[in-house]
Amino acid sequence: MTYEELKKDPSIRAFIQRADESLLALGFTEHSFAHVGRVADVVRYILETLDYPSHQVELAQMAAYLHDIGNLVNRIEHSQSGATMAFCILEKTDMPAEDIATIVTAIGNHDEGTGVPVNPVAAALILADKSDVRRSRVRNQDVSTFDIHDRVNYSVVHSDLTIDKENKTITLQLGVDPHYSSVMDYFEIFLERMILCRKAAESLALQFKLIINGQPLI
């Protein structure tokens, strides 16, 4: 199975859609095709920029596309349930066991709390997933009822993850509208994610940097 074939698989698309419907009911930000597609694009950018083999890049894109299907089961420990679901799906294909193992490991380690960048694919998935903070992911249109997660995501009007190979840095640059959220709000809910991003960057021999409104913070 290739990445393009995986994206067209009707069962996988149904799992992603229904998982996102569950998160919608819980009041979470968008985790559907826009999110997984963007994460897949960013893992490709990270690994291609760092000169990883094309096959490893494709495995990372597949892991990115599947990484949130565990929300179909429950939001809690969705990385582990998603890894198990991915294993069951991919085992029925002609994919080699080594490739399945890489994808399952990355999915099972992508979330803060339990995630560890145990290989380059997992590290790239962590960085790509946690950098997808943007206004368009907020589905609650009533600003007066925003919780802190809505405020922080809605406040981000620009997000860009870039690698400087010469200086060995990976930088997340955010443009934040202070009318909706403060920098402190961002750290209140995302500090654990940023620590995981730092670890993921280090595993790729990079230094993680965070810049908000032109101000270096990490």
Quickly give the CATH architecture.
Orthogonal Bundle
* Secondary structure: number of strands: 4
Q: State the helical fraction.
A: 40-55%
Mean pLDDT: 95
CATH class: Mainly Alpha
**Proportion of residues in β-strands:** 5-15%
Structural class: alpha+beta
Low-confidence stretches: none
CATH superfamily: Hypothetical protein af1432
Query: What is the C-alpha radius of gyration, as a whole number of Å?
Result: 17 Å
Shape estimate: globular
Chart the SSEs and their pairings.
Layout: H1 3-8, H2 10-26, H3 33-49, H4 54-66, H5 78-91, H6 97-108, H7 120-130, H8 148-155, E1 156-164, E2 169-176, H9 183-203, E3 207-212, E4 215-216
Parallel strand pairs: 2-3
Antiparallel strand pairs: 1-2, 3-4
Helix pairs in contact: 3-4, 3-7, 4-6, 4-7, 5-6, 6-7, 7-9
